[in-house]
Amino acid sequence: MGRYVVRRLLQMIPVFIGTTFLIFVMVYAVGDPVNAMFGDRAPDPATAAQLRSEFNLDKPIWQQYLLYMGKIFTGDFGNAFNGQPVTELMATAFPITIRLAILAIVFEIVIGIILGVLTGLRRGRPIDTTVLMLTLVVISVPTFVTGTLAQYLLGVKWGWIRPAVSPEAPAGELLLPALVLALVSLAYVTRLTRTSIAENARADYVRTAIAKGLPRRRVTLRHLLRNSLIPVVTFLGTDVGNLMAGALVTERIFNIQGVGFQLWQGVVRQNSPTVVGFVTILVIVFLLANLLVDLLYAVLDPRIRYA
Amino acid sequence: MRGATRVTWTGRALAVAVTVALTATACGGGGSGGGGGGGGSEAGVVRAFWTDPQRPVEPANTNEVQGGKVLDMAFRGLKKYDPATGKAENAVAESITTSDQRNFTIKLKKGWKFSDGTAVTAKSFVDAWNYGALVTNKQVNSYFFEYIDGYDDVHPDKGEPKAKKLSGLKVKDSHTFTVKLNQKFSLWPETLGYVAYSPLPKKFFSDHDGWLKKPVGNGPYQVDSYTKGQVMKLSRNKHYAGQDKPRNKGVHLKVYTDQNTGYTDLQAGNLDVVDELPAGQLKNAKKDLNGRYINQPAGILQTVSFPMYDKNWQGRKANLVRRGLSMAIDRKEVTEKIYHGTREPATDLTSPVLKSAGGYKAGLCGETCEFNPKRAKQLVKQGGGIPGGRIKLTSNVDTGSHRQWMEAVCNSINHTLGKNNACTVDPVPTFSEFRSNVSAKKMKGMFRTGWQMDYPLIQNFIQPIFYKDASSNDSHFADAEVDKLIDKANSSDEAAAVTTFQQAEELILEKLPAIPLWYQNGNAGYSDRVSGVRLNPFSVPVFTDIKVK
């Protein structure tokens, strides 16, 4: 197991270098960010040249990349164009988005799996049909529609919550945004669990367990659910990364100053240090989440062994 | 057995996760309750929409509205533009005198202080201007100092600066300094209301990082705290010596990630002033806000320019085609249908905020700017048709509904000329890419050019855009007669200058390197908690006048 983890970690290195280089090239290929700093007028060439050399934009791209990576390993992600260190932006943005993502994941796990088990065990009954219909609706409505609608109804029309989350973004204010963020994935988790449970409910080992005279509860939770969770866990693992990056829409709607917002602003303003820095961290999060998923397989199904 | 332990392990992990989340939630709940209770600190304070400034907030380094908002509150220059008339009036300046339109003597009023209590002296201005002009300080507004003698030495196009200070600036005594310009420029004193010319305190030079974290200025407000990306809190500057003392206790600028959220918060009563209304809401804003909606002219003009460096667009025949294209655009329809009255069809090359005293002249463009399909078709035919038979209209499309109006303009042209594909839209994804193409002279057909004034003067709408090789002359238009008139205007006294600039403008409209499209308005909405909200000619809310109930 230990050797497996080490091997996986080593494999991450080329993936990491490859992805960061691609992102770097893509961000810098879009155009010259210095132009954008001068607003709607032609930049004054002398000042523009000074700014380019400050951000190393006057060097060939491979050299820029090496300089950038060299700095990253010393913990320096460079400065955003307003002079603020990118690490400072990360220190405020990541805790907020992690809080949002954890809440969303909890919603997904708790509500998604419970609904999945309920419907899986009661196939064809009214509750199954209702939940299926609802998940279909949720999946087909885009997040920005549910988000703005919920914000308008709860925030403006009924005045139950403040429509915009305060800068400190305490978890209480993040409940609604997290639910909105989780909704689509939640629907998928429900459907995945339902199918998986429905399939496994007919399996031999379940019949054996029932024949042994085990209590119903124990059969469902220990035998049936555990075996049915593998696809769900895979989905949740990849979803961690998606939630952090995909929070972009939700964070904009509810004015949450997290990772999605910083990324969005970085893209709009062509603030390459911010974009590359944040995406680099997201890449690491993604890689680690996937490793964790693979390790969880072994926990759920003892037949899977890593050496 | 092994299996069993593992299940417990997962079970526990889940339990822990849920507990953590719940505890976090509980804490958060308490926190937000506290925040609500802390509303007392916001009594009497205006809560306004803000987005994070793109550059550090320094007077010579801020060229967009959001950073400009702060500078407008925290600084006062030699002059100040009257919010209603746009006229430059003395603020810190006691007098600005000249006998030859080139050498100016500036006397300061006594008793002005920065919010840290230090005095505003001649040196505060001279040091600030020298800092802003020096190329190695990388200030995006450096070009504001280009008319001062010695600018080429501190700001050469290439290489290291030859001098650290502008040779044209001399401190005479603590409250007097002189300025020598490198050309005659009679309207120059009127430009001094722009924030780039603000004075800076000693702290700016001795502790620059500290100053950036909490800017210190001499304006009606002082910065109390600045949390980047979140909020800037300003309160009354008790040392402020100007007439326009704030009528509220302070201003909190709150950072919003999205205009729509700001608008929603305004409707919910959590925000008082929003000066960037989302385009999609303009149609309903007046009704939604029960009339608490402002739509007034701003100093912004939208035009489309032609590449005058392209052979196809030179000569008398091309001029007829340009004229025809201009008359083929139904400006009224576009401004109403797409912008819901937040743009006005343009009939000259300036802006209504200048007022007629400042050089605005409605209808100067004449029939060229009027929609006249019959004449348009005729003119294009006379000019030998559009060069190449087709024309592209290009702009970046990442902001400001540019795609929509371009499509509308092209449709209007196609409809008039009776050809389906005479005009097509060529969208460029980002502004910076569009800018590089424009700078590299890659334009073939019509391209978007917009102008947001730096100061409410006709000079600012003409010289930077149409003078030979001027900084924003994107069409690379050059005409000896126009340049001569501009030079003449700059060397005559102020009243005569405006009329001469108008003559130059008339000549430009005859040559038509750019077609005026529409004047842009400033828009804002406000809550019922505040009153007296209006915008200045730069479409920045006049915060000092706002009263809080």
Oligomer: heterodimer
Q: What kind of sheet is the major sheet of chain B?
A: 7 strands, mixed
Question: How many discrete domains of chain A?
Answer: 2
In CATH, the homologous superfamily of the largest domain in chain A goes by the name: MetI-like
Report the total helices of chain B: 18
Strand composition percent of chain B? 15-25%
Give the CATH superfamily of the domain at 298-521 in chain B.
Answer: Dipeptide-binding Protein, Domain 3
Compute the CA-based radius of gyration of chain A: 24 Å
Structural class of chain A: mainly alpha
| Total of helices of chain A | 12
CA-based shape of chain B: globular
> CATH architecture of the largest domain in chain A, please?
Orthogonal Bundle
Largest sheet of chain A: none
CATH class of the largest domain in chain A: Mainly Alpha
The overall average pLDDT of chain B, rounded, is 88
Transmembrane segments (chain A): 12-31, 96-119, 131-154, 174-192, 224-245, 275-300
Membrane topology (chain A): Multi-pass membrane protein
Keywords (chain A): Cell membrane, Membrane, Transmembrane, Transmembrane helix, Transport
InterPro entries (chain A): BPD_transp_1_N, MetI-like, MetI-like_sf
